[in-house]
Amino acid sequence: MVHDTIAAISTAVGEGGIAIIRVSGPQAISGIDPIFKSKISLKDADTHTVHYGHIIDPSSGEKVEEVLVTLMRGPRSFTAEDVVEINAHGGVIAVKKVLDVVLQQDGIRTAEPGEFTKRAFLNGRIDLMQAEAVIDLIRSKSDRAFSVARKQAEGALSKRIKALRQTVIELLAHIEVNIDYPEHDVEEMTSAYIREQCQSAIAEIDKLLKTANEGKILREGIMTAIVGRPNVGKSSLMNMLTQENKAIVTDIPGTTRDVIEQFVTLNGIPLRLLDTAGIRETSDVVERIGVERSKDALQDADLILFVLNYNEPLGEEDRQLLEQLKDRSVIVIINKMDLPARLDLEEVKRFVSKDSIVKMSVLQEQGLDALESTISEMFFEGQLEANDLTYVSNVRHISLLKRARQSLTDAIEATHAGIPIDVIQIDARSAWESLGEILGDEAGDSLIDQIFSQFCLGK
């Protein structure tokens, strides 16, 4: 339990209808009560009630702001501590004046980034996995990503990890008994039990890891590079997908000189779009730099949208690039289908499968549904189930699940090799600790601090 009291603005800075100053800790109520003038004292008010009044400057007695104050007594609050939330008029000056008065009270200090959520974790209200899901809720770029994060924040994934840990702790208990009472140990039965428990845990881990690719995509988005020769319609495609004129479009080749990044959602699939400079040999120094950056973007991309012009034959640069991209996730977009055909589609099919070719007319906004469908089939095994969004989406969680799986696999192999049971215990305990690190039970202070430092101030 933390013993000091913290305060911070919990809403975005700037103009708005309402701004909220959150105060949490043992002195939240006693610290705010003297500066809040209302018909009732906060000390006498019931929990989970809202009160109208004014924040008063204690040095002058003047009214600072007209407010509504929400009172939540611990442990029935987000932090499991006493919490007071001051709802003031939105605006930089009004909120700053209220916060300044709050921070003048003895025992109340400015909160660090993520400290409210960190206190919820330290006070046992949520585990570390649920705390990390709060970040994902804030950063969600699609409805599906939000739904996945919400279920994680509610503890759906935590329950499955805890069940896994229970399986492993039962295994450890069995091993401990056999170590303490070797005279009662039947080696074949013990080895069979260890293998059975480990295989059961591995099967559950595999179910979770099967969702990892989709979950990671929903959380972070698919890094998508739009590439092709100059003037094939890359920037026009970017503008069509974003529904904004982010990229300059002209008939002059080489207009795009740098990589332009934008986040979009197509049919629930988040894409981090990179519109790149047209790839070609050029003597223009600035354009050449842009081309090199385009090639760098190609290396980092999870998905490449390679745009070709239906009204132009395949060039040598196109063939070279298609050859280089044979082992990558590529969708070839045949743009300008509204113009006369000069492109040999059969030649294109020699580089990519017909299922990876999408015919479009960006100018007439045709072919977007086909593109969405192709991306979905490429990155997701069937449709994402709307009712079962228990996905593993965090890279840290994925790594620890893989580590736990390896430890359990090592334990199984050890039984076949006839290794002593006290050595097998080390592998089982390693798996148990890896799973505990996901929940925060085995996490060190430096990891916890690093995770919560990613939060915004006031959350």
From TrEMBL:
<keyword id="KW-0547">Nucleotide-binding</keyword>
<dbReference type="InterPro" id="IPR031168">
    <property type="entry name" value="G_TrmE"/>
</dbReference>
<dbReference type="Pfam" id="PF12631">
    <property type="entry name" value="MnmE_helical"/>
</dbReference>
<feature type="binding site">
    <location>
        <position position="85"/>
    </location>
    <ligand>
        <name>(6S)-5-formyl-5,6,7,8-tetrahydrofolate</name>
    </ligand>
</feature>
<dbReference type="GO" id="GO:0005829">
    <property type="term" value="C:cytosol"/>
</dbReference>
<dbReference type="GO" id="GO:0030488">
    <property type="term" value="P:tRNA methylation"/>
</dbReference>
<dbReference type="Pfam" id="PF10396">
    <property type="entry name" value="TrmE_N"/>
</dbReference>
<comment type="subunit">
    <text>Homodimer. Heterotetramer of two MnmE and two MnmG subunits.</text>
</comment>
<keyword id="KW-0479">Metal-binding</keyword>
<feature type="binding site">
    <location>
        <position position="459"/>
    </location>
    <ligand>
        <name>(6S)-5-formyl-5,6,7,8-tetrahydrofolate</name>
    </ligand>
</feature>
<feature type="binding site">
    <location>
        <position position="231"/>
    </location>
    <ligand>
        <name>K(+)</name>
    </ligand>
</feature>
<feature type="binding site">
    <location>
        <position position="255"/>
    </location>
    <ligand>
        <name>K(+)</name>
    </ligand>
</feature>
<feature type="domain" description="TrmE-type G">
    <location>
        <begin position="221"/>
        <end position="380"/>
    </location>
</feature>
<keyword id="KW-0460">Magnesium</keyword>
<keyword id="KW-0963">Cytoplasm</keyword>
<dbReference type="InterPro" id="IPR018948">
    <property type="entry name" value="GTP-bd_TrmE_N"/>
</dbReference>
<dbReference type="InterPro" id="IPR006073">
    <property type="entry name" value="GTP-bd"/>
</dbReference>
<dbReference type="GO" id="GO:0002098">
    <property type="term" value="P:tRNA wobble uridine modification"/>
</dbReference>
<comment type="function">
    <text>Exhibits a very high intrinsic GTPase hydrolysis rate. Involved in the addition of a carboxymethylaminomethyl (cmnm) group at the wobble position (U34) of certain tRNAs, forming tRNA-cmnm(5)s(2)U34.</text>
</comment>
<keyword id="KW-0819">tRNA processing</keyword>
<feature type="binding site">
    <location>
        <position position="256"/>
    </location>
    <ligand>
        <name>Mg(2+)</name>
    </ligand>
</feature>
<dbReference type="InterPro" id="IPR027417">
    <property type="entry name" value="P-loop_NTPase"/>
</dbReference>
<feature type="binding site">
    <location>
        <position position="250"/>
    </location>
    <ligand>
        <name>K(+)</name>
    </ligand>
</feature>
<protein>
    <recommendedName>
        <fullName>tRNA modification GTPase MnmE</fullName>
        <ecNumber>3.6.-.-</ecNumber>
    </recommendedName>
</protein>
<keyword id="KW-0630">Potassium</keyword>
<feature type="binding site">
    <location>
        <begin position="250"/>
        <end position="256"/>
    </location>
    <ligand>
        <name>GTP</name>
    </ligand>
</feature>
<dbReference type="Pfam" id="PF01926">
    <property type="entry name" value="MMR_HSR1"/>
</dbReference>
<comment type="similarity">
    <text>Belongs to the TRAFAC class TrmE-Era-EngA-EngB-Septin-like GTPase superfamily. TrmE GTPase family.</text>
</comment>
<keyword id="KW-0378">Hydrolase</keyword>
<dbReference type="InterPro" id="IPR027368">
    <property type="entry name" value="MnmE_dom2"/>
</dbReference>
<dbReference type="InterPro" id="IPR025867">
    <property type="entry name" value="MnmE_helical"/>
</dbReference>
<dbReference type="InterPro" id="IPR005225">
    <property type="entry name" value="Small_GTP-bd"/>
</dbReference>
<dbReference type="GO" id="GO:0046872">
    <property type="term" value="F:metal ion binding"/>
</dbReference>
<keyword id="KW-0342">GTP-binding</keyword>
<dbReference type="InterPro" id="IPR004520">
    <property type="entry name" value="GTPase_MnmE"/>
</dbReference>
<dbReference type="GO" id="GO:0005525">
    <property type="term" value="F:GTP binding"/>
</dbReference>
<feature type="binding site">
    <location>
        <position position="252"/>
    </location>
    <ligand>
        <name>K(+)</name>
    </ligand>
</feature>
<feature type="binding site">
    <location>
        <position position="235"/>
    </location>
    <ligand>
        <name>Mg(2+)</name>
    </ligand>
</feature>
<feature type="binding site">
    <location>
        <begin position="275"/>
        <end position="278"/>
    </location>
    <ligand>
        <name>GTP</name>
    </ligand>
</feature>
<dbReference type="GO" id="GO:0042802">
    <property type="term" value="F:identical protein binding"/>
</dbReference>
<feature type="binding site">
    <location>
        <position position="125"/>
    </location>
    <ligand>
        <name>(6S)-5-formyl-5,6,7,8-tetrahydrofolate</name>
    </ligand>
</feature>
<dbReference type="InterPro" id="IPR027266">
    <property type="entry name" value="TrmE/GcvT-like"/>
</dbReference>
